[in-house]
Design brief:
The longest helix is centred in the middle third of the chain and has 15 residues. The chain has two domains: 223 residues, Rossmann fold, CATH 3.40.50; 97 residues, Rossmann fold (3-Layer(aba) Sandwich). The protein is of the alpha/beta class and 346 residues long. The radius of gyration is 20 Å and the shape is globular. It is 44% helix and 14% strand. A six-stranded mixed beta sheet has the order 1-2-10-7-8-9, with helices on both faces. The protein has a four-stranded parallel beta sheet with strand order 5-4-3-6, sandwiched between helices. Helix 3 crosses helix 4, helix 3 crosses helix 7 and helix 12 crosses helix 13. It has 15 helices and ten strands. Bound molecules: ligand F0G. The site of ligand F0G has 21 residues, from helix 4, helix 9 and helix 13.
Amino acid sequence: MRGILIRYRHLLPLTSKTPLVSLEEGSTPLIPLDSTGKDLGIRLFAKFEGANPTGSFKDRGMVLAVAKAIEAGARGLVCASTGNTSASAAAYAARTGIPCTVLLPGGKVAMGKLAQAMVYGARVISLKGNFDRALELALEVSRELGLAVVNSVNRYRLWGQRSVAWEICDELGHPPDVVVLPVGNAGNITASWAGFVQYSRIGKIGRIPAMFGVQAEGAAPLALGKPCPEPETVATAIRIGRPVNGKKARWAVRMSGGRFLSVSDGEILDAQKRLAACEGVFAEPASCAGIAGLYRLASQNGLSTGKEYVAVLTGNGLKDTDAATSGKRPPVEVDAELKAIREVLL
Ligand code: F0G
């Protein structure tokens, strides 16, 4: 499949002037998580968005946002980011030759993501402030310099991100009962729900899955129902205290019959470890919040046994190896001799 703009052209707001930008994004694996599903008493699949070209789901929306910015004659792109949006914006900017500026919360972006923005050639600015402040400034910069904002305030970003819902239904042949996603700025859960709604309006599916949004306890404005002035979590991708799409997301979740909940950093890291060690799937901490949420619900008898769940694993574990290895014992070091290896193994 030749990327989102080709695969789903009939469902996207394309015109004859929209450039068909592509890094062959989307068409990510839908992996059965048999061991985890059995543990939880449900049928469970992971939509592994870490297999996108820049390693996160952002590429689905970014490709459309950048194509539409070029169509509108934008001089450049700007975004605030906890890391993945900036990596994706920088890649599509490089692909299309449009300049890109990214504003990052200083010291709180995983190294892999920072490396991506730098190597793709974006202008990277590290701010002494958190993501919420960076987004305010990105909007101001865009107004002052006439740049296209490619955060999830951009309707095309959200429209492109609907495609994850379409793929899940296409692959399963029906909608799942529940979709669980990590929530930061709350764009992705809103977009995914809108994708299911669009599919039901054109008669492709007969019902909408319940949408479950999981936040980290230290950055849980939607689960708590109030802003978090100082968000903090090991899952830096979702370290957000005032989600711009909060209102829309609350509506989407309520309409779908789902809910928001929060989990601790410990539960997120346990879920990450379990996914990697028992399923062979390595996702970044934020992505694993969804799985941690399922475990939390199971402990409260909040899962419907036998039903079909899809957890969207939003980003690749390789982006943030520090979070995955911190607190782990380093590999044993021995002489490069068979005897030494035998001593370790036997
Ligand atoms: N998972 C990952 C890996 C993310 O990078 C993000 C958001 C989310 C989940 C949450 O998605 O914001 O639509 O609710 N990352 C943004 C960024 C904020 O700048 O990369 P959301």
